[in-house]
Design goal:
This protein is α+β, with helices and mostly antiparallel strands. It contains 28 helices and 13 strands. The protein has a 7-stranded mixed sheet, with helices on both faces. Strands 7-8 form a two-stranded antiparallel ribbon. A two-stranded antiparallel sheet has the order 10-11. Strand 5 and strand 6 form a beta hairpin. It is elongated. The N and C termini lie far apart (111 Å). It binds adenosine-5'-triphosphate.
Length: 754
Amino acid sequence: MAEAFLGLPTPTEDSTPHTPCHQLTFRSPSKTSPAVFIGGMGGGQKSYTTNPDDYKLLEEVGYGASATVYRAIYLPSNDVVAVKCLDLDRCNSNLDDIRREAQTMSLIDHPNVIRAFCSFVVKQNLWVVMPFMAEGSCLHLMKTAYPDGFEESAIASILKETLKALEYLHRHGHIHRDVKAGNILLDTNGVIKLGDFGVSACMFDRGDRQRSRNTFVGTPCWMAPEVLQPGSGYDFKADIWSFGITALELAHGHAPFSKYPPMKVLLMTIQNAPPGLDYDRDKRFSKSFKELVAMCLVKDQTKRPTAEKLLKHSFFKQAKPPEVSVKKLFNNLPPLWHRVKALQLKDAAQLALKKMPSAEQEAISMSEYQRGVSAWNFDLEDLKFKASLVQDDDEIQDMRADNVNSTSFVNNDSKATTSTSEIVPSDDAIPSGDIPESSNPPDIENKPNIITVEEKIRNKTDQPSTSDKEASVQLQAKSRILTGRNRQTQSGPLTPGAVLNHSKSDRTRALERSENESSQAVDKMHHQVRRAPSFSGPLNLPNRASGNSLSAPIKPSGGYRDSLDDKSKANLVQIKGRFSVTSEDLDLVKDIPLCTVPRRSPQETLLRKSASVGDWIFDSKQPTPREMSSSSSSSVHNSNLPASVLMPHLQNLFQQTSLQQDLILNLLNSLQTSEVPEASQNGKLPPLPRSSDNNGSVEVSERERLLLTKVSELQSRLTILTEELTAEKSKYVQLQQRVDAIVSREEGGQKSEA
Ligand SMILES: Nc1ncnc2c1ncn2[C@@H]1O[C@H](COP(=O)(O)OP(=O)(O)OP(=O)(O)O)[C@@H](O)[C@H]1O
């Protein structure tokens, strides 16, 4: 099996649309060039074709950051399958990468890991055909019927099966990177499989993806600290951390820190003691369960046990077969698709509450978060910077209380210890570039998926919710029926351009949505949920990208060049680093505390306020004050122009210089009035923004260094300007006298002529 992961024999290309599905085939809608590449499927399985017409898509049973999952009928055999429709236009990976990952996914062969029967492309979607897990994910189940989590016997079974899956993947050199309740799938007979491994996880987790979607959305609740640490590598032990978080999620109905905004979650994960089960609050859980969780949630990844070792933990000795402990959880529940609809309605309602314009970005994050979707896509520096700006004392107080209550089982040496009653970052809780790289286990010979944090950061989401069971039962919406044929007629041929064409895809999906002939009201709400992250542009399928990149408003988050859409680019005035200014944003200059600075037109303004975080940018296209003053004065000196021309020019120069001086002074005042100048004069860094509980452990960010440098530059420029201004003033006075003399001379001459 290891060979299967590490390298595949080249499969034979198949160009017949209806051949049994041993291939991953990229197919054009016209079917004239059906086979672009081929994947494989292990022998001894049922055959599935790569012809989309052979699949009748029924109800939607799930959706995530990048995909929508449908229950479907495979018409040739009447088998019920799940078809995951992955949105390829969210992915900048080339087709070879996708093929490689799809091949890997199709070769997975373990009873606890979802495998792909086959995959093929329909328009800009990759369809992945896989077993249908009729009870959906643990997350959906909790949201529907167990908002406070499952009982321990069910948790033990679920975790044990999940751990078997992880042990298998790790043994074959793979990191799942998305272990969470939303990816633990359940079948009616109690079978448990870990999903979302392979195509979506791998193909999107490349640097390209991050480049295409640079703004953070979502929450890093499941992410291991080392994944969040710049410069520190991580390995399969990151999955063990996520597994521990998942254990807490199953126990409480939500992941730890899930009530906090993503930015805070990131800081808390890095700085706080690890979360855990509390001896008092979690009395219903056994000591061995608490110990297991504590073993997984050790910040030093080298001290986390392997999946193999964890499987031998005493907690799993008591685990019953899932048919006994898990199957009963589904009693009396409505069908999965009704539950999913109900959850979507609820999401829509919650999102509607968050539609305050000022909270748009937070609404995006929280919406995704509540839906339990995740993506590995945010800019860590941006995130940290935003996190450092979070000054919500109330929430920080909550955080303290929460940690006091919940973090009582801290284990840094694989031994249980009781935490103190306040947040005291342990050594390994302090972000540091010194965190040791974990040594790779000898049994993993190949790690194609091991990545560095600069390339990709894991981002996972969840939020507790109450039961939707009643609402689900009441739902009488008819099922939407979309056939592969219908879908296929809705867009042009598949080309690389089409695959990456964002707006086209969106339009296509909007058309697909409009096909829905049933349950109009429900779907309207549904669409609102889907659309929510975008806030503009065409209707989007659920995905995080829509919320955080191309169509998202750039003002609240600060846009990157890559994430600016065409419209934004058209208005672009200036981009410097992460700060961008559009023509619309120029008006924001009015936000400067202009106590002493007269309002000027944007064209005259040299320093502009960024739309993103109120930073300032110097417009290099415009002449610097020095250039202006020198050119002005030289033109005055060398000119034989008449006074009537010179005068306005000099007055303008004088006014501009004064304004610039005022502007710079004003800027300095607005920057930590007393601290910054002092610090810069002393050559020290100014104090950093801190959350109240970090004990001074926030890293000095590159941005802050840049800011300080900029302040120093401004100060020296101010000094120069002041000198120049003085010189100009005296020149002005002299010139004024000369002009007066010339004028009086001319007047005298005119009088004498008269
Ligand atoms: N084989 C399946 N059978 C039934 N339901 C499924 C199946 N696969 C996925 N689902 C449902 O669809 C949801 C989304 O699927 P999946 O997690 O694979 O999508 P995704 O876009 O990769 O999500 P994310 O990246 O947010 O985890 C799952 O949480 C689950 O509820």
